[in-house]
Design goal:
The protein is an alpha/beta fold. Strands 2-1-5-6 form a four-stranded parallel beta sheet. A four-stranded parallel beta sheet has the order 8-7-9-10, sandwiched between helices. The radius of gyration is 17 Å and the shape is globular.
Length: about 220
């Protein structure tokens, strides 16, 4: 599919400066990649209305082009995500750059969802693995854990944001999960990079999966 057009959609704003190198590698591999953000056309005031309330049980975390991390209510954001996807019908593939649980919640024939890709990838490795999960924020514990529990995995969770990245903090959380019996560590957000993984992997004895790295590898394989 040499002439495939790929839409890479962040739930924040595009372009994602923290993903510049990875996006460039996709282009150097011959992929026709275009970046879009669900929040691109929204004002700061409009983005603020999408913040989670105390009743929101599913919180998403993303990045704006000014480098600011924002928390969003998944329920409030869903219509904006679907509208953005609907506007990209001319693209061969649409990759939603979020590991939240969107399976069966969005409609588009050639939509690539990292949550579905990652759970099936790990199932293909081994179904009896105890998984250590690290997500950006503590309040994501329940929804991130539930996603993997639905896939029949035993999981433990901790939080260390890739958008306020601290190498020692991430390493400390990873080591705690390893000590608690995790067989595999997943940095469960598209904000985590291969560089972040490489900074801690030699100090752990368990393998680490970074969704961005895995998903982009799959994208290059199918296009």
């Amino acid at each position: 599919m040499q002439h495939s057009k790929i839409a890479v959609v962040t739930i924040g704003q595009a372009p994602r400066k923290d993903m510049t190198e990875d996006i460039q590698q996709l282009r150097e591999a011959g992929l026709h990649v275009h970046e879009f953000g669900v929040l691109d056309l929204l004002s700061s005031e409009e983005i603020a209305t999408l913040s989670p309330s105390l009743e929101d049980s599913d919180v998403l975390v993303t990045l704006l082009t000014n480098g600011r991390q924002v928390k969003l209510s998944k329920q409030k954001l869903m219509p904006y995500i679907q509208s953005c996807i609907d506007d990209l019908h001319e693209f061969t593939w649409i990759l939603l750059m979020c590991t939240g649980d969107f399976t069966n919640k969005l409609s588009y024939k050639n939509l690539l969802l990292p949550d579905r890709m990652m759970t099936n990838l790990v199932k293909g490795l081994h179904t009896e693995l105890a998984i250590g999960l690290i997500g950006p924020e503590p309040e994501q514990h329940r929804t991130v854990a539930e996603k993997w529990q639905k896939a029949q995995f035993d999981v433990t969770f901790s939080a260390s944001s890739p958008y306020h990245f601290d190498n020692q903090h991430l390493l400390s959380k990873a080591q705690q999960l390893e000590e608690q019996g995790a067989d595999l560590l997943i940095l469960d957000c598209m904000g985590y990079s291969t560089t972040m993984k490489n900074m801690i992997k030699d100090q752990l004895t368990i393998p680490i999966i970074v969704p961005r790295e895995a998903v982009f590898t799959i994208l290059k394989a199918i296009c």
